[in-house]
Amino acid sequence: MRMSSMFSKTLREAPANADTKGYEYLVRAGYINQLSAGIFSLLPLGFRSVGKITKILREEMNALGDEEIQMPVVNSADIWKETGRFYSIDREMSRFKDRRDADMVLAMTHEECCTYLARQMIDSYKRMPLLVYQIQTKWRDDPRPRAGLIRVREFTMKDSYSFDRDVAGLEKVYKAHYDAYFRIFKRAGLPVVAVGSDSGMMGGKVSHEYMYLSPIGEDTIITCPECGYTANRQVARFRKSTQKEEMKALEIVETPGAKTIEGLSGFLKIRPEQTAKALFMVGTYIDDSDGTETQRLIIGVVRGDMDIEENKLQNAARCSSMRPAQEEEILAGGMVPGFGSPIGCKEDVVVIVDDAVAASTNLVAGANKEGFHYLNTNYGRDYSGTVADIAQAKEGYLCPVCGKPLKSSKGVEVGNIFQLGTRYSEAMNCFYQDENGERRPVVMGSYGIGVGRLLACLAEEYNDDKGLVLPLSVSPYDVHFIPLIKDANASDEVYSRLVSAGIDVLYDDRKESAGVKFADSDLIGIPLRLILGARSFAEGKIEAKFRSTGETRMLLLENLEEEVKALLAELSQVSA
RNA sequence: CGGCCAGUAGCGCAGUGGCUAGCGCACUUGGUUCGGGACCAAGGGGUCGGUGGUUCGAAUCCACUCUGGCCGACCA
User: What is the dihedral of CA A563, A565, A568, A574, to 10 degrees?
Assistant: First the structure.
């Protein structure tokens, strides 16, 4: 490609809203252009890089026996009503009506559509396993897109769906994707860790997220450096110490003004772990069949030395969304903010008790009376409720597996895999007959990778103070050819020789100074640069320079094609 | 959806009531340069986000609104 006719240009200054290096360089180098919040065009360079990424995706998916298809972006709402997600997903999914006044949605994922396909395709156990994928545009109306391509509203996703007759089959294909995803990220050059995660709105039990660990990440990842345990903080477990003693009689004490655990433990001269604290939320419960919403007050109880992980609380409470409760709502539930506990609360309150609280004895808890607490509260005797792990894991807490201290880091989710089970097949009547003629639901899995987000993470990972430094596997071009000689015919000839040899070349044929060309080349970040200068040209040579190391080599022009291919082979070794 | 900030040339910004709205980069033309963002000269480019108001006079003050960004809520 000749740069003189390329549909993009470089910028000397960063756009005002570029807050990370990777994003700044993608914009300045001309890979991407923002149209509005969370909506970007891919310019030629970005489009080519994405093409390199999707090539890797296709190769790895095809190798699993995954067949590529394309499902519609616009779905009739009917199938989304069948699974209930038409009602349970909030405004993140955009809806509209067609001319006949029928409900339509912009599909933000394709479980519904592919289940619709599968129920026509699959009638017998003999038809499975089946596996399809697509690489396609998704629209999710995120309330707050940010950080360039990291979190956007319109994006390209590779999403696969598996159909199996049983859980054993699902586990097998899940493992195959688990491994394939590591190969994909390895080939693209992005370091990732797989973490156990929450399956959120997707449903299902087992899921993993592939995280690129970086300070720009929005997810918090809990890891154990000792044994390798990793999990998203939303679901991360940890070892909780508990001590049991004989239950003592419930006793009410005056604790004026002690509305916080610090205040309370200071006042009573006890340790925070001898107390229980409460968090009040209002959960929305949606009836999947018709979208009817009901709201219920939820109280979560953890020991005073821990905090509540709201995601765990929401899962334990089995509601579809949650918000902090207002003071009046808490009072209406028979409890008092600041002095709250489930003791004496109204019947319809959802009580979720952390397992460490249930396993402890004689905790101090609120008396639901302004200025008073109970001594010696005990789960089971004084109050009841669902017991679950709802405490938030933190750095320094103990690993649930090996007991060593945990670490906390930030990460960007670049891929995820879910064992969906039969949630969608049962809801959408996707059944098959087994050998015994019995009707069984198809067991499904889904597997996603965000393509643009992957590019954004690569741009974060691979840059220096001059611009991008992309791995060959995802670089828009293999070679950046920069002639500095006046003889355009000679440089055109070098260019066409490279192109004929099947090498992807970006050719800086612009009438610019050497400095400008070098600076733009640094910014664009193609791994190998060929510089044709007057002196070396006279000697029948051309200079090759590696973007990442700055190392240069002189190549003989007569052996140009072979020598460049050898250097590219070297580069692909590095990233493999 | 709440809090805060910002919308002036393609990009980055200055201009806080008064002549024809400026600067840097980018762009055009001519000339000199030519291996790390060169220089000289001459140019082109603006409904100051929008609407309404205050005023003799508004980019500037007020109201509303739209858009973008940051923090939070939210989020596969």
Answer: -90
Strand partners of residue A279: A300
Query: According to the model, what pLDDT value does residue A463 have?
Result: 95
Evaluate if the CB of A232 falls below 7 Å from strand B: no
Q: How far is CA A442 from CA A2, A81, A116, A427, in A?
A: 52, 19, 12, 11
pLDDT tens across A454-505, in order? 999 999 999 999 999 999 999 999 999 999 999 999 999 999 999 999 999 9
Q: Which CATH class is domain A15-198+419-459?
A: alpha beta
Please give the nucleotide, over all strands, whose C1' is closest to the CA of residue A510.
Answer: B34
pTM of this prediction?
0.90
What pLDDT shows up at residue A288? Answer: 67
Residue A467, nucleotide of least CA–C1' distance: B37
Task: Kindly provide the ipTM of the predicted complex, given to two decimals.
Answer: 0.94
Q: How far apart are CA A511 and CA A486, in angstroms?
A: 9
Whether the CA torsion A358, A313, A174, A87 is positive or negative: it is positive
Cβ of A513 less than 7 A from strand B: yes
**CA–CA distance, A140 with A143 (Å, rounded to integer):** 9
For the stretch A297-319, pLDDT in tens is 888 889 888 888 888 888 888 88
Distance A552 CA to B1 C1' (A): 55
pLDDT of residue A566: 97
- Establish whether the CB of A90 is closer than 7 Å to any nucleic acid atom in strand B: yes
Of A219, A125, A138, the C-alpha closest to A169 is A125
Domain A477-575 in CATH: superfamily? Anticodon-binding domain (3.40.50.800)
Backbone angles phi, psi at A49, to 5 degrees: -60, -45
A251-388 CATH, one of 3.40.30.50, 3.40.50.720, 3.90.960.10, 2.60.40.10: 3.90.960.10
How are beta strands A67-68 and A130-139 bridged, if at all?
A: parallel
Considering only CA atoms, which of A418, A456, A470 is closest in space to residue A218? A456
Quote the CA–CA distance of A352 and A301 in Å, as a whole number.
Answer: 6
- Asked if the Cβ of residue A36 lies within 7 A of any atom of strand B, the reply is yes
For residue A335, the 8-state DSSP code is -
Instruction: Verify if strand B has an atom below 7 Å from the CB of A466.
Output: yes
